[in-house]
Amino acid sequence: MAAELGSWGDVVNEIDVQDIQHPDEQKPAVEEDTGPSATDVYFEEIVPKQGPYKIYVTNLPYKIVDQDVVDYFQAEHSVKLQDVHFVMKEGKMTGQGFLHMPDRESMIKVLKMESFTFKGRNCKVAVAESRDG
What tens digit of pLDDT does each residue of 85-114 get? Predict the structure, then answer.
């Protein structure tokens, strides 16, 4: 003979009613974590402590000038650029370039974007690798 299963009501009655919080009861306040986020820690590690603060950009439009990029970052992201340098091959744009940032904070702000849409193109940013030794 098979064991008889109880109803769902039997299972519910076994739950300790004191463990259930009534919707009208106030939950205890949760302390806000004020420590650095994982993202902040990541950027602290990859961004140089001292200049030059250089960002590598890919997928830039082919028909732009450096002032277009400077104006975009100033207007859209309140970031000033020190200088812009495009990678050229045989006198033509390759869609790649370098943004020279005035300070570490500006560099982190741009890197946190990861990508941005500029003149219809999805551009990506990364820390430029140093060519020193």
Answer: 999 999 999 999 999 999 999 999 999 999
The rounded distance, in Å, linking the Cα atoms of 47 and 104 is 7
Three-class secondary structure assignment of 26-82: CCCCCCCCCCCCHHHHHHHHHCCCCCCEEEEEECCCCCCCHHHHHHHHHHHHCCCCC
Closest CA to 129 of 45, 52, 69, 70: 52
Identify whether the C-beta of residue 127 lies closer than 8 Å to the C-beta of residue 113.
no
Six-digit token string for 70: 């400077």
pTM: 0.69
